[in-house]
Amino acid sequence: MRYQITGKHIDVGEALQTHVRNELGEVLEKYGQRPTDATVIFSKAAHEFHCEAVVHLSSGLNAAAKAHATEIYAAFDDCVEKMDKQLRRYKRRLKDHHKDRTEPVEHIGASSYILAGEPESEEAEPDTLQPIIVAEMETKIPSLSVGEAVMQMQLAGAPVLVFRNEKKDGVNVVYRREDGNIGWIDP
Asked: What is the pLDDT of residues 75-93, one digit of tens each?
């Protein structure tokens, strides 16, 4: 498994990198998943350290967790604990969903754009109704069942997930509603 351990405006020492590899490796080994790579990013805001971890599984799914604490090791340990809880919760479903799957999740390429927000002053009217594109990126849309999409959205901690429905071969969206339920858009 490949590890990418970085810090934003902070130095990540060899001892912390070894701790990350050992602890994260133990959690992933416990659940029998086949991770391909893990990205762990440390940052500091005021007096708190923040840790974000994303693990890509060979099945094509991602598990993500975030945590913060006043100590950098405590922030990482809280993050790993959250990931452990997610993987424990979804262990049976991860195995059941991929029992019939012989190949990893297929991804199709798509363009992703970041658009400029509204002007700060309400009096200023835009010159045109066309939004200003700030950035353009490549993204991947997975081919999943609806159940797998909901599970992936919850594992990644994302508010929304766009996916290609395997059964209907169309693009669908699942999202977390304000009432806590999951919404599904199937055009």
From this structure: 999 999 998 888 887 776 6
The CATH-assigned architecture of domain 107-185 is 2-Layer Sandwich (3.30)
**What span, in angstroms and rounded, lies between the C-alpha atoms of 161 and 184?**
10
Residue corresponding to tokens 């012989």: 102
Which single residue is written with the structure tokens 């590890």?
A: 3
Band of pLDDT at residue 124, cut at 50, 70 and 90: low
Calculate mean pLDDT across residues 7-13. Answer: 89
Q: CA-CA distance, 6 to 8, in Å (whole number)?
A: 7
**What are the percentages of helix, strand and coil residues in the chain, rounded to 5?**
30, 40, 30
What pLDDT, on the 0 to 100 scale, is given for residue 49?
94
Mean pLDDT within 90-109 = 63
Give the integer Cα–Cα distance in Å for 153 and 178: 15
CATH 3.30.505.50 occupies which residues in the chain?
Answer: 107-185
Query: Does CATH number 3.40.109.10 belong to domain 2-97?
Result: no
Please work out, in degrees rounded to the nearest 5, the angle formed at the alpha carbon of residue 107 by the alpha carbons of 104 and 108.
Answer: 155
For tokens 């604490």, the residue is: 69
